[in-house]
Amino acid sequence: MASPTASASTASGSKVLPLTQTSIGQKALVAITGALLYGFAFAHAAGNLQVFLGQEHFNEYAEMLQSMPKVVWATRIGLLAALLTHVALVVSIATKASKARPGRYRVDAPIAKDQSILERYARQTMLLSGLIVFAYLTFHILHLTAGVVPGLFFHRGMAFENLVYGMRNPPVAAFYVFANLLLGLHLFHGCTALFQTLGLKHPQWDARTKPLALALVAVIVGTNVVIPLACLTRIAGGELPDDPAELVIPLDEDDATALED
Amino acid sequence: MSESIDLKLHVWRQNGPKDQGRFEDYSAYAKNISTHASFLECLDVVNERLVLAGKDPIVFDHDCREGICGACGVVINGEPHGPQKATTTCQLHMRKFTNGQELYVEPWRATAFPVIKDLAVDRGAFDRIVQAGGFITARAGSAPDANDIPVPKPIADDAMDAAACIGCGACVAACPNASASLFVSAKVGHLGVLPQGQAERDSRVLHMVAQHEHEGFGGCSNHYLCESACPKEISVKWIARMNRDLLKASVTHAPPTKSGGGDG
Ligand code: FES
Question: What is the pTM of this model?
Answer without folding.
Answer: 0.91
